[in-house]
Amino acid sequence: MLCGECPGGYFCGKGNENPNYGATNFDNVCYSFLAVFQSVTLEGWSEIQAMVQITYAHYAWAYFLPLVFLGAFFLLNLTLAVINSKFTEAHNQQEADD
Length: 98
Prior knowledge:
The chain is an all-alpha fold. It has a single domain (13-93), classed as Helix Hairpins, CATH 1.10.287. 61% of the residues lie in helices and 0% in strands. The protein is elongated.
Protein backbone atom coordinates (compact mmCIF):
# COMPACT_ATOMS: atom_id res chain seq x y z
CA MET A 1 0.00 0.00 0.00
CA LEU A 2 1.07 3.54 -0.54
CA CYS A 3 1.70 5.66 2.48
CA GLY A 4 -1.45 7.19 3.84
CA GLU A 5 -3.63 4.29 2.75
CA CYS A 6 -3.41 2.22 5.91
CA PRO A 7 -6.67 0.52 6.89
CA GLY A 8 -8.48 1.65 10.01
CA GLY A 9 -6.99 0.48 13.28
CA TYR A 10 -3.46 0.24 11.87
CA PHE A 11 -0.51 2.51 12.55
CA CYS A 12 1.44 3.80 9.56
CA GLY A 13 5.10 3.08 10.28
CA LYS A 14 6.38 5.29 7.45
CA GLY A 15 6.17 8.32 9.75
CA ASN A 16 8.39 6.78 12.42
CA GLU A 17 12.00 7.81 12.75
CA ASN A 18 14.81 5.32 13.09
CA PRO A 19 16.51 5.00 16.50
CA ASN A 20 19.64 6.91 17.49
CA TYR A 21 18.65 9.98 15.48
CA GLY A 22 18.22 7.91 12.33
CA ALA A 23 21.69 6.32 12.44
CA THR A 24 20.66 2.80 13.44
CA ASN A 25 18.79 1.11 10.62
CA PHE A 26 19.08 -1.39 7.83
CA ASP A 27 17.40 0.81 5.20
CA ASN A 28 20.39 0.89 2.85
CA VAL A 29 23.82 -0.70 2.53
CA CYS A 30 25.75 2.15 4.18
CA TYR A 31 23.62 2.20 7.32
CA SER A 32 23.64 -1.61 7.40
CA PHE A 33 27.45 -1.65 7.36
CA LEU A 34 27.43 0.94 10.14
CA ALA A 35 25.12 -1.21 12.27
CA VAL A 36 27.21 -4.33 11.60
CA PHE A 37 30.45 -2.45 12.38
CA GLN A 38 28.90 -1.19 15.60
CA SER A 39 27.96 -4.76 16.50
CA VAL A 40 31.40 -6.16 15.66
CA THR A 41 33.14 -3.55 17.80
CA LEU A 42 30.73 -4.43 20.65
CA GLU A 43 29.50 -0.84 21.01
CA GLY A 44 25.80 -1.08 21.74
CA TRP A 45 25.22 -4.31 19.85
CA SER A 46 22.73 -5.55 22.43
CA GLU A 47 20.48 -2.52 21.86
CA ILE A 48 20.58 -3.12 18.10
CA GLN A 49 19.76 -6.79 18.66
CA ALA A 50 16.84 -5.91 20.94
CA MET A 51 15.47 -3.42 18.40
CA VAL A 52 15.76 -5.97 15.58
CA GLN A 53 14.05 -8.61 17.71
CA ILE A 54 11.18 -6.27 18.52
CA THR A 55 10.83 -5.10 14.93
CA TYR A 56 11.37 -8.24 12.86
CA ALA A 57 11.41 -11.53 14.70
CA HIS A 58 12.36 -13.05 18.02
CA TYR A 59 15.00 -15.32 16.44
CA ALA A 60 17.20 -12.37 15.38
CA TRP A 61 19.68 -13.63 17.96
CA ALA A 62 20.62 -16.28 15.36
CA TYR A 63 22.10 -13.44 13.26
CA PHE A 64 23.79 -11.52 16.07
CA LEU A 65 25.35 -14.47 17.90
CA PRO A 66 27.70 -15.51 15.05
CA LEU A 67 28.23 -11.86 14.14
CA VAL A 68 29.53 -11.02 17.61
CA PHE A 69 31.54 -14.21 18.17
CA LEU A 70 33.11 -14.44 14.74
CA GLY A 71 33.36 -10.71 14.10
CA ALA A 72 34.41 -9.34 17.44
CA PHE A 73 36.35 -12.15 18.99
CA PHE A 74 37.99 -13.61 15.89
CA LEU A 75 38.27 -11.11 13.05
CA LEU A 76 38.92 -8.05 15.20
CA ASN A 77 41.63 -9.82 17.18
CA LEU A 78 43.15 -11.19 13.97
CA THR A 79 43.32 -7.67 12.54
CA LEU A 80 44.96 -6.36 15.71
CA ALA A 81 47.49 -9.22 15.65
CA VAL A 82 48.51 -8.38 12.07
CA ILE A 83 48.90 -4.70 12.94
CA ASN A 84 50.99 -5.61 16.00
CA SER A 85 53.14 -7.95 13.93
CA LYS A 86 53.83 -5.33 11.27
CA PHE A 87 54.57 -2.71 13.92
CA THR A 88 57.05 -5.03 15.64
CA GLU A 89 58.66 -5.88 12.30
CA ALA A 90 59.06 -2.18 11.43
CA HIS A 91 60.44 -1.43 14.91
CA ASN A 92 63.02 -4.25 14.63
CA GLN A 93 64.00 -3.05 11.15
CA GLN A 94 64.50 0.47 12.47
CA GLU A 95 66.67 -0.78 15.33
CA ALA A 96 68.77 -2.84 12.88
CA ASP A 97 69.32 0.23 10.69
CA ASP A 98 70.55 2.32 13.65
